Amino acid sequence: MTGTKIGLLGTGNIAPVYIKAAQHFPVLDLRAIAGRNPQVTKALADEAGIAAMDIPTMLADPEIEIIVNLTTPEAHFDTSMAVLEAGKHLYSEKPLGVDVTEAQTLLRTAAARGLQVGGAPDTFLGQAVQTGRAYLDTGKLGTVMGASLNFLSPGHERWHPNPHFFYQPGGGPLYDVGPYYISALVALLGPVASVSGLRARPRANRPWANPATGQAQDIEVNVDTHITGLLQMASGAIVTMSMSFDVAKTGSRDIEIYGTEGTLSLPSPGAFGGVVEVSGPDRVWQQLTPQHGFGDENYRIIGAADMAQALRDRRPMRTSGDLMHHIVEIMDGVMHSAQTGARVSMQTAPKRPAAVDPTESWH
């Protein structure tokens, strides 16, 4: 198979993960990486055996068909627009935009130019969510009437070497981590019809020890860091969602789906694998046998691989721009509701992404 030529734009912490994961997908031919720092760009390129480019050179390269935008959230929109204006298909790290207006503008621009937009998260294509989905599709859980999504953490400054942007617009637990949970939810249960929300920002500053210098610093907090949403699915199911950077410890499960005949439990959708369990009327948890691959490593480029194959096959992408737009609208709706007290109806309703067929050739 001759791979679709792609380029990575952005050299942050996630770039090496994408580079490594690309090796698993013959449908992708990773040609180059571009960034603002020439030294960092060259070091990543040399290690991967690909070309190091500046951004204008990558945008002008006639061989590169898809550009993966790995820039930070505040730079996503301008970078993504530049990719589309250069005539390239766009695959964007999450979120697609910091608000619905940005997401809509990108999709309109792509449509006008005959281009496709896709994006992360793609972890719902991994083993855990796909195993859970396969069980749901058997009907053994009965009628699904509810679910819960829980990301409850003490904050990213506990592990990230440069956490400041997580506490600026476009960051926070909802916009940084929420897309993983919401994409998994839509893959499992379909689109969201309406949302409401509440928010809190308990600290104006957060202490942080710079790992490079050992010096204590304060991170200024300019986003809400504890958010609860209530989501009404188009199917009628009711979902609670809690996203927080302010919880020291929790015993909550990441995702639970509640049916009339049992409960399905899934691990964090920030990863591809993990234990999936189900409990029936006997109230005993039983581990499900994995039904799909992509659970043993970080396959953080699988969505771009699916995009490349979808372009060849002229079929819908699973990590489509429409899905990413829906995710942004849900997050915006939760925050708008938290500000106004009003329930917000969704204007988008993408189809539930197709299940991953283990026999598909792109992987």
From TrEMBL:
Region (Disordered): 344-363
UniProt xrefs under InterPro entries: Gfo/Idh/MocA-like_OxRdtase_N, Gfo/Idh/MocA_oxidrdct_glycsds, GFO_IDH_MocA-like_dom, NAD(P)-bd_dom_sf
Keyword line: Oxidoreductase
GO molecular function: nucleotide binding; oxidoreductase activity
Domain Gfo/Idh/MocA-like oxidoreductase N-terminal: 5-117
Pfam families: GFO_IDH_MocA, GFO_IDH_MocA_C3
Boundaries of every GFO/IDH/MocA-like oxidoreductase domain copy: 130-264
Family matches, as SUPFAM superfamilies: Glyceraldehyde-3-phosphate dehydrogenase-like, C-terminal domain, NAD(P)-binding Rossmann-fold domains
Protein name from the UniProt record: Oxidoreductase
Lineage of the species this protein comes from: Bacteria, Pseudomonadati, Pseudomonadota, Alphaproteobacteria, Rhodobacterales
